[in-house]
Amino acid sequence: MESMGKKKPWPRRSFTPEFKAEIVELCWRGGRSVGPVAKDFALTETAVLLWVSQAEVDAGERDGLTSSEREELAALRRENCRLREDVEILKRATAFFAKETR
């Protein structure tokens, strides 16, 4: 028997910024609500709602982090993690050499 009851997760799909912009444009200017647009393009309503919300933030119509701010925050978090690893390595090296000189 194959994996009883275990479902294989759907592969995560990625979409280009241009595609997302087209979907948002259909919701805004096309006079259509999120549900039908999502259904027509085989998307989840949640994904389309997130794209529309982010577009509203980017346009200044809603409070929140803009896309560029989100990218900057992610880059800073990655750099912070790398720097913390560097500090940990330097601490270990310092401790090692302190033992050697005694």
Largest sheet: none
Please state the CA-atom Rg, rounded to the nearest Å: 23 Å
Q: Give helix % range.
A: 55-70%
Total domain units? 2
Instruction: Give the rounded overall mean pLDDT.
Output: 91
List SSEs in N-to-C order.
Answer: HHHH
C-alpha end-to-end distance: 64 Å
Any overview of this molecule?
With 102 residues, the chain is mainly α. It is built from 4 helices and no strands. It folds into 2 domains: 15-64; 66-102. It has helices spanning 17-29, 34-40, 45-58, 67-101. The mean pLDDT is 91.
Strand and helix map with partners:
Blueprint: H1 17-29, H2 34-40, H3 45-58, H4 67-101
Helix pairs in contact: 1-3, 2-3
Summarize the structure.
This protein is mostly helical and 102 residues long.
Keywords:
mainly alpha, 0% strand, 2 domains, 4 helices, 102 residues
